[in-house]
Write a structure and sequence with these properties.
By secondary structure, the protein is mostly helical. It contains five helices and no strands.
C-alpha cells in the first residue's frame, strides 16, 4: 500500500504545476494556500474547469458527474481525491 502522505504531497505538487500551466506561470499559484477555497483564492470558474480537464489527463481518470462539490474546493481536497482514486 502506498504511503498516503507521500501520495498527497506528490498530488498537491502536480496540481500546483497544472494550475501554473492554466495561469501561465507561478506568480499567482505560489500565493494559493493548499487548504483555501480555490474560488476564494481568485480562481475563476473557467480556470477551474481547465484545471479539472488537465487533472484527468495528468492522473488518468475521468471526473464523475456526481462528484461532491467539497472535492473541488481546494488543492488539498483535489489531492485527497486523486489519492483515494489510486487507493
Amino acid at each position: 500500500m502506498p504511503d498516503t502522505a507521500v501520495g498527497i504531497r506528490e498530488a498537491r505538487e502536480r496540481i500546483r504545476e497544472l494550475l501554473a500551466d492554466v495561469f501561465g506561470g507561478w506568480t499567482f499559484v505560489k500565493s494559493v494556500p493548499e487548504a483555501v477555497s480555490l474560488r476564494e483564492a481568485g480562481v475563476p470558474s473557467t480556470a477551474l474547469v481547465a484545471l479539472l480537464v488537465a487533472m484527468e489527463d495528468a492522473f488518468g481518470f475521468e471526473w464523475d458527474d456526481d462528484v461532491r462539490p467539497e472535492v473541488l474546493r481546494s488543492i488539498d481536497s483535489l489531492a485527497g481525491h486523486v489519492v483515494a482514486l489510486r487507493g
